[in-house]
Design brief:
Blueprint: E1 10-12, E2 15-17, E3 21-24, H1 31-41, E4 45-49, H2 64-67, E5 74-78, H3 85-98, E6 104-107, H4 120-132, E7 136-141, H5 145-154, E8 158-161, H6 175-184, E9 190-192, H7 198-206, E10 211-214, H8 216-219, H9 224-244
Parallel strand pairs: 3-4, 3-10, 4-5, 6-7, 7-8, 9-10
Antiparallel strand pairs: 1-2
Helix pairs in contact: 1-9, 3-4, 5-6, 7-9
């Protein structure tokens, strides 16, 4: 167990990261606010929705690579907005072409436009194709421990179960499932989707997750930059609490001070 949590890192596809907060780049007021929020949160990995963000597809529009240079951050192109395996695979291949062979991607294949729950059948299909094509796949899925283990066995470099529906801010709805996924995993587990505030991020880390990815919780806050700072602290606090090992929960009271050997 690390004595210095500042040096406590985790590894994805052979790359080491010290920040366990991953941040999305959508929904902010403008690109300047995006940069300020990401800096305040201390994120090293940032996600971009390839189908919604200009990373070179449109020469006439602002390019996010100019605001958030790839030599300062690890980019995680994602397949947000994809509802079938074919589209998701094509999106990842486009990202690899635009980012000079970058092969670390976040795969998400959604089931329907109302709930935005993942389509696990299409996700499995896309993951299989991408892994065989040389991609390092961090995969978004539901909070099913069986599915998480299956995706790991396929070769996904990280599994990212939802805490609650995307953008809902409901926090972790099923702590038991997340804890079970973590306990059975041999790859990093990062909570993705559903975080609403700092306490949700802390809970995810206390459950043993390797990190948390969020976007709306920061971008939709009244003060996004301040919320990003709060999330950074929550991630650190939750991680330290996990490493420290919490006291056992008890049904009845237990005296804070010893009651044996009283003087009177």
């Amino acid at each position: 167990m690390p004595n210095d949590t500042q040096k406590d890192s985790f590894s994805v596809a052979g790359r080491e990261f010290t920040s366990r907060l991953l941040v999305g780049t959508g929904k902010y007021k403008d690109m300047q606010q995006t940069r300020e929020a990401i800096d305040a949160g201390g994120a090293e990995i940032i996600t971009i929705a390839v189908r919604r963000t200009n990373i070179g597809q449109d020469q006439g529009q602002p390019n996010i690579l100019k605001v958030l240079p790839p030599d300062e951050y690890t980019y995680l192109p994602n397949t947000a907005g994809c509802f079938d395996a074919k589209t998701a695979v094509r999106t990842c291949r486009l990202a690899r072409e635009l980012l000079d062979g970058h092969n670390l991607v976040k795969l998400e294949v959604l089931g329907d436009e109302k709930t935005l729950f993942p389509d696990v059948v299409q996700t499995l299909e896309a993951a299989d194709i991408l892994i065989k094509d040389g991609f390092d796949v961090m995969v978004y899925t539901n909070d099913d421990p069986i599915m998480a283990k299956r995706l790991e066995a396929m070769g996904c470099v990280a599994v990212m179960p939802l805490a609650a529906p995307i953008g809902s801010g409901l926090g972790i709805r099923n702590r038991l499932n997340i804890r079970t996924i973590v306990e059975n995993a041999e790859v990093p587990i990062l909570v993705d989707a559903g975080v609403g505030t700092a306490s949700d991020a802390a809970v995810a880390m206390e459950l043993g997750c390797d990190g948390v990815l969020m976007n709306t919780a920061i971008a939709a806050a009244r003060h996004p930059v301040l919320m990003a700072s709060a999330m950074k602290k929550a991630i650190q606090a939750g991680r330290e609490a996990y490493l420290a090992g919490r006291m056992p929960a008890k049904r009845f009271a237990s005296a804070s001070s010893p009651i044996d050997g009283l003087f009177f």
